[in-house]
Amino acid sequence: MADIAFLLIIFFMVTINFEVDKTQVFLPKTDIRLEIPKKAAYISITEAGQIRVSGGEEISVAVHQEDVLSFAADVVARDPSKAFVLKADSNVPYRYVDGVIDSLKQAKAQVIYLLSEQETVDSAAAEG
Amino acid sequence: MRFKKGTVNDEIPTASMADIAFLLIIYFMVTTTFAATRGIDFSLPQEEDSPLVDKEESVLIEIQPGGGLLVDNKSMQLDQILDYLKPKLERNPMKPVIIRSHEMAEYGYMVGVFDELRQAPDKIGIEIKNVSIPTQREIDMFWY
After folding, report:
1. Taking the model in full, what pTM does it have?
2. In CA terms, which of B16, B31, B109, B127 is 20 to 30 Å from B94?
3. CB-side exposure of B36: number of CA atoms within 13 Å?
């Protein structure tokens, strides 16, 4: 019994994935979904437009829209090829996302991953 | 006087091992969250490879609040966009496609349009190589 239990523990320890950002958002659904590189920097935007950022190693912190540029510039200065993950709520007004993308462009970020959930037949039908 | 000899147990007590192991399992099961770790990638233009897109030469997809789509000022459904683009892309595979969202349009619609464009190779057999998502600052600076 103990052997089996320890095997399960090892499984959980190996597969556990510490989320740097635990913001609860309703992600958009897409058919194309690529694996996001490990240690990517995270920027999350809630439906109310609140922004949290993480460089990929530490737990995310809340920031103002105007501080995203300095955050992104700092991340890019340390690693120019660092991928950014945009974890934005599907219902957030686009102007919040526009501000973040603009900051990433100004910071010379190379690639953004728009975090999404798998599009299913049910969800596609619900959207009409 | 006789002293009672103490017997030393030379085995490590393991009776509680299973209890500890199961407590650890429960801890990991409770704290493990299955994170969404997939998304749709979007390469940002770098200065060297970002030619100015000519508005007249491109296809403009405008996203309105509520999800309404205007493609070159014509109202269209999401699943009609690729059929509209196909003849244009056959003539010019480098045809720029610009996605412009209204500031109050929901972000999910923009992702939906971008996802549809990325599926062009599967749906119409042509890859859309030049998709541009200008920001409001860029529009203010370069739109003419």
Report:
1. 0.79
2. B109
3. 24
